[in-house]
Amino acid sequence: MLPSRSKTSVAIFLIPPLLLYGIAVLLPILQSLFLSFFRWDGITDMVFVGLANYVEMFTGDDVFWISFFNSLGYLAICLILQLGGALIVASLLLTITRGRELVKTLYLLPAVISTVAIALLFQRIYSLEPLGLLNQILQWVGLGELQQAWLSNVNTVLAAVSIPEGWRFTGLYMLIIYAALLAVPRELEEAARLDGANWWQVFTRIRFPYIRPVWITAVIMATTYALRGFDIPYLLTNGGPGQASELLTTYMYKTAFTHTDYGYASTMSVFIVAECLLAVGLIVVLLRRKADA
Hints:
The chain is built from twelve helices and two strands; from the N terminus they run H-E-E-H-H-H-H-H-H-H-H-H-H-H. The protein has a domain at 61-113 and 159-292: MetI-like fold, CATH 1.10.3720. A two-stranded antiparallel sheet has the order 1-2. It has helices at residues 4-35, 52-59, 62-93, 100-108, 115-126, 133-140, 157-182, 186-194, 199-227, 231-237, 248-257, 262-292; strands spanning 38-39, 47-48.
């Protein structure tokens, strides 16, 4: 038990950030929940409609469901690139003796670059007229017939807007996982190798179980960030062509600020919050259940 003075000190330091969190995060969520029960264009009086916005969203809005499934595809690509790439690079860094700091810096660099700059960079990379880097590479390797406007093709645009987001944060998760791997006791790995374990067995039986708590945190961060992804897809395509790259976040933004339907946009924002909370719950349950199995 902490003495009363220690409890008071802890409370003094915790109350300001908790108040800030409540004002900056919880209050807007509650405000969005309140607005979701109204029709409001931001100017005229609000009209109470009860659950009508939710009924319309789930049963009468095809664009919502297109955006929802696009968001799941966007999430899958981001997770594969960010977490899969981060785990591979972090594992390889353990074997590098020279240039390790340079590699870490290069991988982390995209995370500190402006999203507008990243969007402009990938616009040029994907460009067909003038020929962008990706289409130039296809030409150099003899696959010129595959050249296309990647951001204008409904079959490729979702992957094209997901890749920049995945590339952007791979370095961040690489550093998190690399720090966790450094904490794995080397004597455990050496003992396993002496017993005849190969690299895969060392990784699956020693390294990964040891970093599982950090891995769960990284998965939660990557998942919630991807479900709330907005800026790069919006800057690259604005949800087009058609709704081929429309995400829940871009659709919500356009509903609020283009169609000035703040009540319906608030309904989608509540759904996004609930979606993130559900995803976090499923991740924690599934990964912990696998750890206990």
